[in-house]
């Protein structure tokens, strides 16, 4: 086991660079920060390429070393440098970046799906993926120009839900067409004269819900493709709901038949 | 109209100090940052003590000056110093801090109420107040050791809902007792053997919902006082939902009779 004490060490520099999307793509890896995520990965049978811990954490959990290809001990200063958290727990793991660009077999789409159309806040993206998991959804598809699903902030907000739901990145317009081909409804979310109250729809076993950009909502093109558009009746004078709160309200209404 | 160009000016120092709870209490004022909040305050008939803007913003909206006791023009550097936002819009207003410690007349409690028990993240507190507004709730009561409801981050997340719902700070245990005296149910949120699915309760016109601390949940004492405890059935493997998402799901279920 190597001990690394300098932030100028090449390994340390590389772990730091995993905060960028470019380097995650180049290396096909991303970083899990903290015990909850590392344990979720081990329980999920995820291959751990590198395990990095402080002396305190590695000493307290000697068994962990068997779960990783390589183990590195670092100082707390180095750990602080690698992660973007204020008080790191002292354990991180480098794991393979899943291939989220493949196009799944249409026979495997059964269940609820969440489509995110250019949702930009990483906390919102992560929280919605976590909520989709809790609502028993099958998967989440994220459009281009959304927050990157394996960025540190999204990973922190997902809290391990990437190991429970299927995650894809892709062209939502194509996904909507695929759903329509198998007669699965796709619900948009935009208030317009034809929109239905979210309480008045009763989807079957396979459907998709689209949530749009925080400021601009869904794209016009996607709106035209949807089966129905849903709205949440607002009784107060608030003009809108936070997108992650809206998604939670809608998913826990639509999941009744899952 | 005074023009202020230095961050060492006493007015500027005082506005900056409004980021602290202590100074907000001492002066009985707080800060609204940005056009949306300033406009909401004006429409709501809120007395504007001081209006502070950049030259660009004050020139573009000359009518605004009539709505404020005092108007100050500041440089963009000064504006950046006063607010804690990354890209301020160039307009802030100092307004009176409402008295949130009074005990309301029990005859005026009709409607849905949200009680926040030591919720610490300002974004969560603000988002839940905004959601309560959208759900048509009457008011929100925040316990001690919660995020301060007039802190910049809570004010930003509330998006003006403090002008639409009644906001109180107080001892939740006393509030729960008051609700029980008028036979209004108080719902806790904690998974225990007696908890009910949130879909199985049907409150009347007056009720309260308690949301607890992000990590620890509700206090034991409050749990003992509740009429029922609710849970959201999780179908996936996520262990919990974000507290603001949970609150949204629950409020938009409980508000059906409001």
What does this structure look like?
Two copies of one chain form a homodimer. In chain A, the strands form two sheets. A seven-stranded parallel sheet of chain A has the order 8-7-6-11-9-12-10, with helices on both faces. A five-stranded mixed sheet of chain A has the order 1-4-3-5-2. Chain A has helices at residues 10-17, 21-27, 35-43, 55-60, 76-82, 122-134, 152-158, 172-181, 220-225, 243-254, and strands at residues 2-4, 29-33, 48-54, 68-74, 91-96, 111-116, 139-142, 166-169, 186-189, 196-197, 206-211, 228-231. The longest helix of chain A is centred in the middle third of the chain and has 13 residues, at 122-134. With 258 residues, chain A is an alpha/beta fold. Chain A has two domains: 2-96, Ribosomal protein L30/S12 (60s Ribosomal Protein L30, Chain: A); 106-257, SPOUT methyltransferase, trefoil knot domain (Alpha/beta knot, 3-Layer(aba) Sandwich). Chain A has ten helices and twelve strands. Chains A and B meet through α6 and α10 of A and α6 and α10 of B.
């Amino acid at each position: 086991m190597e001990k690394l004490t300098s932030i100028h060490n090449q390994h340390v520099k590389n772990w730091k660079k995993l905060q960028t999307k470019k380097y995650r793509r180049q290396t096909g890896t991303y970083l899990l920060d903290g015990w909850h995520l590392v344990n979720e990965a081990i329980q999920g049978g995820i291959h751990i390429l590198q395990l990095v811990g402080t002396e305190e954490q590695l000493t307290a959990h000697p068994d962990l070393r068997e779960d990783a290809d390589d183990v590195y001990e670092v100082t707390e200063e180095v750990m602080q440098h690698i992660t973007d958290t204020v008080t790191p727990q002292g354990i991180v793991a480098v794991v393979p970046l899943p291939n989220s660009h493949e196009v799944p077999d249409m026979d495997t789409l059964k269940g609820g799906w969440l489509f995110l159309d250019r949702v930009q806040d990483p906390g919102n993206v992560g929280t919605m993926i976590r909520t989709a998991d809790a609502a028993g959804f099958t998967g989440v598809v994220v459009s281009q120009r959304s927050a990157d699903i394996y960025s540190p902030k999204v990973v922190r907000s997902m809290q391990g839900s990437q190991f429970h739901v299927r995650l894809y990145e892709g062209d939502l317009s194509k996904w909507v067409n695929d759903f329509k081909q198998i007669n699965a409804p796709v619900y948009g979310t935009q208030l317009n004269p034809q929109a239905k109250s979210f309480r008045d729809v009763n989807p079957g076993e396979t459907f998709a819900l689209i949530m749009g950009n925080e400021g601009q909502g869904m794209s016009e093109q996607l709106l035209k493709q949807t089966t129905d558009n849903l709205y949440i009746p607002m009784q107060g004078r608030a003009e809108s709901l936070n997108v992650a709160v809206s998604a939670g309200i809608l998913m826990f209404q639509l999941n009744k038949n899952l």
